[in-house]
Amino acid sequence: MAEIITDRELRHSIETTISHSQYFLFVVSPYIDLDEDLKKAFSHIKPDVVKTIVYRESDNSNINSGISKDSRLFFKSLPNIELVAVKNLHAKFFMNESYTVISTMNLTSSSNHNYEIGVEIENEKEYEMFKGCSDYLIHDILDSEDSDISKERLKNIIPKQLFVLDYNSYEVKINGTPIDLKKFESFHKYCNTKHGYCIRCESTKIDFYPNRPLCPKCFSEWSKYKNSNYDEKHCHRCGRETTTSINDPLCTDCSDVYEFEIEREWKKMSKK
Ligand SMILES: [Zn+2]
Ligand SMILES: [Zn+2]
Asked: What CATH number does residue 144 fall under?
């Protein structure tokens, strides 16, 4: 769920979005003057993460606008960084592959003392909002006359197509769009695992299909209450003892492998 956050919590969320970026980071902040904590957050990022910093180009009304000298020097010392100046920039938001924070806060130490409010979005859960923000940034801000980034450079910073899988026993969404369940089920022919474990009784007499992780006997027991978040005991893929549920039937390791396999099949299908 998108969440309203303010003041210190907002500042913390922005710092975490920066330091936890694994794949890409977009910082959109008209004014930038980094303090030590913000520098630390940037220093945490793995070198291969593409970091795009968008700030306001100075104009006649405000000579001091944009990015401070010290911050510019600091950014230049980081690998894979792209600095983009944009005229008339007033929007402020921060985005990595998992979270988007839209905020009134600039990336400056003085904003610590201000009243600030923002919204934190989990990209996977609210894909449409995340997509709205990234489309606005790429198409309306960066690809406009006001931005100083060339089309060539722009191509390099646009993240490759993301894959976000969201499934439960009723529906499956890939990148926010519902997918036909028959088609989705057919992907499982190409998964490494053929037989699944019942997440309640560990029976191995069922197919591997995370949308139906109970054996017929346990399923009919479950149907009396139909609580999809009820705690079960095993992972549907490896059988390991761990807390699972109908809505979340895989252990963390299996979940990673499963998403990888589904992404592969989905991309194959999308190419056709
Ligand atoms: Zn069972
Ligand atoms: Zn497992």
From this structure: 3.30.870.10
Q: Cα(215) to centroid of ligand 1, in Å? A: 4
87 CA distance to ligand 1 middle (Å): 62
Q: How far is it, in rounded angstroms, from Cα 95 to Cα 52? A: 10
| Domain identity same for 139 and 238 | no
Ligand nearest, relative to CA of residue 199: 1
Residues 74 and 176 both lie in one domain: no
Query: Distance between the two ends of the chain, CA-based, in angstroms?
Result: 34
Indicate if 145 and 170 belong to the same structural domain.
no
| Dihedral angle computed from the Cα positions of residues 137, 142, 41 and 33, in that order, rounded to the nearest 10 degrees | -120
Same-domain pairing of 65 and 179: no
Task: Mark whether 9 and 82 lie in a shared domain.
Answer: yes
Number of compact structural domains in the chain: 2
| Cα–Cα distance, 130 to 121 (Å, whole number) | 7
pTM over 0.85: no
pLDDT tens digits, 215-270: 999 999 999 999 999 999 999 999 999 999 999 999 999 998 999 899 889 888 87
Ligand 2 centre to CA of 235 (Å) is 5
Distance CA 64, CA 14 (A): 24
- Nearest-ligand number for the alpha carbon of 193: 2
Ion ligand 2 residues within 5 Å by Cβ: 235, 237-238, 240, 251, 254
Task: Supply the range of the domain harboring residue 26.
Answer: 3-157
Residues 58, 32: Cα–Cα separation, whole Å: 12
Q: What is the pLDDT of residues 146-201, one digit of tens each?
A: 999 998 888 888 876 667 788 887 889 887 789 999 999 999 999 999 899 999 99
Dihedral (CA of 196, 198, 202, 205) sign: negative
Of the ligands numbered here, which is closest to the C-alpha atom of 238? Answer: 2
